Amino acid sequence: MSEIKYRPLTPTFGMEITGVDFSKELASDDIALLKQLWIDASGMLLFRDQNITPADHVRLTSYFGKVQDDIAIQAPVLAHYLLDGYPEIYRVSNKKIDGKPLGREDAGTYWHSDGSWMQQAPRGSILHAIELPSVGGDTIFNDMGAAYDALSEPMRTMLDGLTAMHTVLKAALESSYAKEYAGKLDQAAQKSATKPVILRHPVSGRPALYVNPGFTSRILELSAAESDAVLKMLFEHSTRPEFLYRHQWRLHDVAMWDNFTNMHFAVANYKAHGWRLLNRTTVLLD
Ligand SMILES: [Fe+2]
Q1: What is the pLDDT of residue 106?
Q2: Judging by DSSP bridges, how do beta strands 45-47 and 15-18 pair with one another?
Q3: Residue 11 is assigned to a structural domain of this protein
Q4: Does 114 participate in catalysis according to the annotation?
Q5: 56, 59, 104, 114: which is the annotated catalytic residue?
Q6: Residue from 57, 247, 264, 276 carrying the catalytic annotation
């Protein structure tokens, strides 16, 4: 019998799961349950005390969908942050060896949804905490489904059917992607896609807001001034405290989220307090 148990992390989203050991292969009924909980938790799952190898990390990722193994092709600027021998694992870290960064230091220090600028955005991302500073370096997640539900009916009606431009150029100009895309802004501009402002989740069908400050530059059907005003309102609305879960990392936490339901924000306040190393995999829709 399955030993999997879960408790909510906030009233609307996020679950902490116990009774799972990702260092071993899981039974198929446990995998089915975890996939269902990923939906039920509106995207955010947390597993504590998972002392896993990179191979375990890739295997657990495969339980939830197709494991992305072409990061170096999709985002060549990230290629040198991949773990040797594991094209599926991308490192987030402030560590340096011989002056060379081990991982991407300032990854995601702004609200965003991973890969929303891609034609086929990845569904999920899974982080494993390997080394942590003594304090700081939290990651904040939000619930875009609850944010959508809390909009007034006239606002939901107006937004439904609208589309928005998502582009890496915005992140390259305004946030930490500036380092990676310095002198390559033409490349960043080409990385763009048009997405519905209200996204029906491809698995659950549940509607959620799908605009993010990191990559969403314009609602295409509105004038520039209207788009700026509506996006500003939606960004403020969707990051209100009642839609947030702030995760304080512990060693060997595995935390995952669903980019179609959650935004996230990496708090870059830890560099005076030690090294941080997280391994990350990416889950594509099956
Ligand atoms: Fe991210």
Answers
A1: 67
A2: parallel
A3: yes
A4: yes
A5: 114
A6: 264
Span 147-163, average pLDDT: 98
The verdict on residue 27 lying in a domain is: yes
Query: What range does the domain containing 29 cover?
Result: 5-104+119-133+249-260+274-284
In the reported structure, the alpha carbon of residue 37 is separated from the centroid of ligand 1 by a whole-number distance in angstroms of 21
- How many Å lie between the centroid of ligand 1 and the Cα of residue 154? 31
User: What pLDDT score was predicted for residue 176?
Assistant: 64
Alpha-carbon distance 179 to 175, whole Å?
9
| Average pLDDT of span 55-71 | 96
Give yes or no: 112 in active site: yes
Domain count, the chain: 1
Q: Give me the pLDDT at residue 159, please.
A: 98
Cα(79) to ligand 1 centroid in Å equals: 16
β-bridge mates for residue 6, sequence order: 17
pTM over the 0.90 mark: yes
Burial class from Cβ neighbours inside 10 Å (0-12, 13-18, 19+) for residue 119 reads exposed
Residue 71: inside a domain: yes
Element (H, E) at 72: helix 71-74
